[in-house]
Write a structure and sequence with these properties.
Order of helices and strands: HHEEHHHEH
Shape: globular
Distance between the termini: 46 Å
Number of strands: 3
C-alpha cells in the first residue's frame, strides 16, 4: 500500500489531479505529521507575489522594507495554503496548531518543488 493510498481516496484524487495538471507532488513527514503538497505553477506564483507586493507598499506607494519583513510569515502561509494537499485546511488560522517551524519548512519545500532553488543540472555551453 502506498503512502498516498493510506491517506484516503480524497487525497489520492487530489494528488492525481495535481499530477494531471503538471504539478510535482511530494510527501514530507515533520514530527508525527504527514504532509502532501504540490508545486505551484507560474500563474499561481505570480498571483502570490503580486499580493505580497501590494501589501508591502507604504503610504507613498513605494515598497516599505519593514512591511516586507513583517509579511514574510504571511507569504509563507499563503504558499502553504495554496499548495497543501494533505492535511486540508480551510483557514490560515488552522496552521497555528503546528510547531513554529513547520510552515516555514513546508513553504521552502513547496518553493523548491516549484522550480526555485539550486539547479541540479549544469547547463551545457553550446
Amino acid at each position: 500500500m502506498s503512502i498516498i493510498s493510506e491517506l484516503g481516496p480524497n487525497v489520492e484524487a487530489d494528488v492525481s489531479t495535481a499530477k494531471d495538471n503538471g504539478c510535482v507532488v511530494e510527501y514530507l513527514k515533520l514530527g508525527n505529521s504527514p504532509f502532501v503538497y504540490r508545486s505551484l505553477n507560474r500563474l499561481e506564483w505570480k498571483g502570490l507575489q503580486n499580493d505580497a507586493i501590494s501589501k508591502s507598499k507604504g503610504a507613498d506607494g513605494s515598497i516599505d522594507p519593514m512591511k516586507v519583513m513583517e509579511l514574510k510569515d504571511e507569504s509563507e502561509d499563503a504558499v502553504v495554503m495554496r499548495a497543501l494537499i494533505h492535511p486540508k485546511h480551510e483557514t490560515v488560522g488552522e496552521l497555528a496548531g503546528y510547531p513554529a517551524g513547520y510552515v516555514a519548512q513546508l513553504a521552502d519545500k513547496i518553493t523548491e518543488a516549484s522550480g526555485f532553488g539550486e539547479i541540479e543540472e549544469e547547463p551545457v555551453r553550446l
